[in-house]
Amino acid sequence: MTEKVLASWKDGRPAKRAILDFVHAITTPGATFVEAADRIATFDNDGTLWVEQPLPPQFDFVFRTWEREVEADPQLAGRQPYKALIERDQAFFQGLATQEPQVVSTLVEAFARSWAGTTPEEFDAQVREWMRTVKQPKLGHPYVELVYRPMLELFDLLHANDFRVFVCSGGGRDFMRVFAEETWGIPKENVIGSAAVYTYADGKLVRSR
Q: Which of 7, 132, 161, 174 places its Cα 20 to 30 Å from the Cα of 206?
């Protein structure tokens, strides 16, 4: 190991020592050795790889889309979840954290409504526009700049020791895959998350409801 390994992790702290000891044990012939083909590490994204306060980045992306939809069709303001968004009803969205069926179903329905008929390329373009133009409200920087350096250093260490690194999340797979490679250095195919259903129509793939 060079002195630059896990450079922003504090020397002598249990976390850094435990990681280095683990990687050494896995990659050194002996009782704990693991073949390179079986070395897999998985991580969540929100709050682990990048900032998630005051809300997870994907909700920022989704809420901005819904606000534009309400502007285009004011009648939506009387329906959930648009009503809760306009009224800043935190109690309603807390129901998502507790997985209340009615809240979850209205959110899923709204997700489907917003992007039904969208091709993968069209959705990617929307996410890239959000990445380019939107700044995190508390810190004033684009979300893709608010990535935790210690975690990127950990990725570098694992990659250098032949680990395959995956991001596994309840968040949207297609959303995360847009920026995974350039932000985290993780290939698209190594991002696993909630996924929309696609259908083949008129010679192209589109999101279904």
A: 132
